[in-house]
Amino acid sequence: MKIREQVPLSKYTTFRxxxxxxxxxxxxxxxxMQKAVAWAREHKQSIFALGGxxxxxxxxxxxxxxxxxxxxNRLDIAGDKVSVGAGVLVSYLLNTALNAGxxxxxxxxxxxxxxxxxxxxxxxxxxxxxxDVLTEIRYMDEDYALKNISLPEAHFMYRHxxxxxxxxxxxxxxxxxxxxxxEAARKLVxxxxxxxxxxxxxxxxxxCIFKNIPLDTVNPEKLKAKGIELEQFTKYxxxxxxxxxxxxxxxxxxxxGAQVSTKHAxxxxxxxxATAEDVVMLVSFIKQQIRDEYGVQLQEEVQFIV
Length: 306
Hints:
Largest sheet: 5 strands, antiparallel
Distance between the termini: 25 Å
Shape: globular
CATH class of the largest domain: Alpha Beta
Helix content: 25-40%
Order of helices and strands: EEHEEEEEHEHEEEEHEEHEEHEHEEEHE
Strand order of the largest sheet: 6-7-13-11-12
CATH architecture of the largest domain: 2-Layer Sandwich
Number of domains: 3
């Protein structure tokens, strides 16, 4: 375990944006994590736990403290139960489960990043999310003590969990899957990956910038007056943020090196040399336009680190 100085975080984010961390270390297990935390406390440094670097925008000034890269890559399968480290890639978890004859994670197809990040944001698609398969999570609390938390205690909601409310660090988790038709599951995964490939940008981005909008939070009359029929969104009870952004003709809108994707309006792409400030300004512009036109307050899905 080697603690390094002034490490550019742009190398570790899918946005390819971010200044240097004062200190940086990779950890592979709980004992390593405890050593890193002990070092940070001894040297009075704040801590940020970094996973796959998706869904993340790091300040151009970087991070004043110790960034801990979570490379917890343990993955054990016993029957239909899976125990997985926070640093395992979501794609690897899905494929390993299918190879073991287990289904239930198809909703993760195409989701970037690591298990830890997917738990923190309760990632999912097609009406399913991580909270549907989790049974227990091991984490460090705000005092860096090792704890376990059960599903009801984790406050899971749409793109939300207790890990967004408190400075807890996810270490490992247990999942309950099931045996099933693996070939049908693989076919579904291939279809969803192909759909994502055809509809989402390939350039550096953080993933979806905004959360989709719950139907019960909007003014239906105002949206109908704008020509939006809400019945088309009743299946998942949410309006895709990209749908509203696209309706305003904001695809291709650019500030500096940050651009609203021409392929999917809920993505901001780093088209070259984008700064965090560029992205923040573009996010603010989009939110203002949507608020003025539709009376809807968009909420960021991406996490800002300053």
